[in-house]
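yo

u said u wanted the structure for the complex thing, so here. seqs first:
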Amino acid sequence: MTIARTHNITKKFGTLTAVNEVSIHLETGEILGLLGANGAGKTTLIKILCGLIKPNSGTFFVQGRIGYMCQTFSLVEELTVHENTRFYSALYGMAKSHAEQAERALLEELHLLNYRDRQVRHLPLGWRQALSFAIATIHKPAVLILDEPTSGLDALSRRRIWRMMQRRAAEGTGILVSTHYLDEAYYCNRIAIMQEGRVTEAGKPEAIARTAAELSEHLGKHA
Amino acid sequence: MRTRKVIRSIAVKEFRHILRDPVSCLLLFLMPVIILVIFGYALSFELNHVNIAVLSRDRSVSSEKLFLRLDANPKIRIVKRLYNMQDIEEAFASRNIRAVVVAGEGLGETEVFVDAMIPMLAMSTENLLGEVILRNAAETHPSPNVQELPEPRIRYLYNPALKKEYMPVPGLIMMVFLLVYSIMLGVSVNREKVQGCIRLLRLTPMRASDLMAGKTAPYFLIAFFHLGMIFLVCRLFGIEILGNRMLFFGICFLFAVCCMSLGLLISACFDRQLDVLILCWIILFIPNVFMSGFVFPVSTMPPAIGAVARSMPGTAFIDAFRDVAYKGNSLSVAFRPILILAGETLGFTLLSYVIFSIRLR
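structre next:
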């Protein structure tokens, strides 16, 4: 079932066309990867889908609740891990007992239980990103939108985040994730390659590029 | 040669930086103009005019002559004529009148009641009126010896001992409230934008009113701590609150809420923390400190600037504070500044709500 779709979305900033007539769709339980070099329009498209910015033309819909993890770390650094999860679960209107249960499960899964009472600013980047992911999913969203969630992380932390994404997808969450790591394309069910605001190719990763080298060459031409 | 090139590059970069940043331009070009030209023109310790009321005890010709002489002075304006001594207090209740001249049967019976809440202004008023009264006495009194002329009796009201502590206390409270409730709250709200939390918050069912209420709630509690602090400060300086204490603390609380609404408004309009900080200083702090009657009396300002000054929250707060705490006025008498404060609080809050609603949509 399609849970998110854009149709001919265009967004301009002055004379720059950041997103140019993009049409994509996301199915239940699917991981759709947005691949592209910096400035390709991935973040703008994600912000449009989240409702953070308005497109100049085109239509889109997202069915159900959205979980969002932005490119830059956006949690409250002065709060502890627990306080952050409590804060956001309260904003999502979750009952206290339900929120505590969800928090415990997520922190256990992320191996963050030992850091529950530590201020977020004292956590290493990998743990912070994991926490951001936990908070984006705490209210069990139907659509999870992740903007470069593994950016700047080591290989181990990246693998941990992808494993969590795959678990959520298996539970039925539709995930739209942007990345510029080519090897990560193979974690996705489908990928859409963005160049200069347009989706130039879309489909299964294997169908688009037989090898990572081909994909690299493909992206490199337009980087 | 290389050093010169480096310095030049940095200077050019800095120049571009300044010109492309509207807040820097405001700070560098507009603020000096405001401070030097407007404040320089508007602010003065010199008494331009004094509004007085007069009362003739004997309704004699000599009293009328004195009143005519007073009215003829370009700095003195007789704005009210009283008919009995009980009216004096009521006349002072309106902030319009600074002194009441009571002419008695003989020249020695002339009394001058002066509002002494601002000691410096009281002294200037006393000097100005005393000079006219003495000159009038010299012309009408049979003895040509100035030393022998009977001097008017001066009575200071509201601050009989001319204690200097009376003047700065409301102004200092105003400064603290502006710092805490406007600047701190404004910066705190803006921190959500700077840290990026606002993007996540926008995806939750949170409404603009939720954000505003949640952000201000801790400051409401802090306000109660500050009210206790004000009470202690008044006691420390020996300032007696003459009016209703509930009304007095209500005014302080209302001003705290007004400052919060200003902080919210500025943070709703601007995205960068530094912009909020600078604009709070330029738009709120400096004008309120200099034009609210805290440092320079509003009555000495030119009429147009005085009207602007009277519409500022700081001025309304200081007026209401003095009315209730020093004069002991009731709500029915001191309603004007309180109404200004309440209206501005409501207006700023509604405006912030509209801007937040649009920006969080």
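Helices of chain A lie at 42-50, 81-91, 96-109, 125-137, 155-170, 205-208, 212-220. Chain A has a mean pLDDT of 87.
cya
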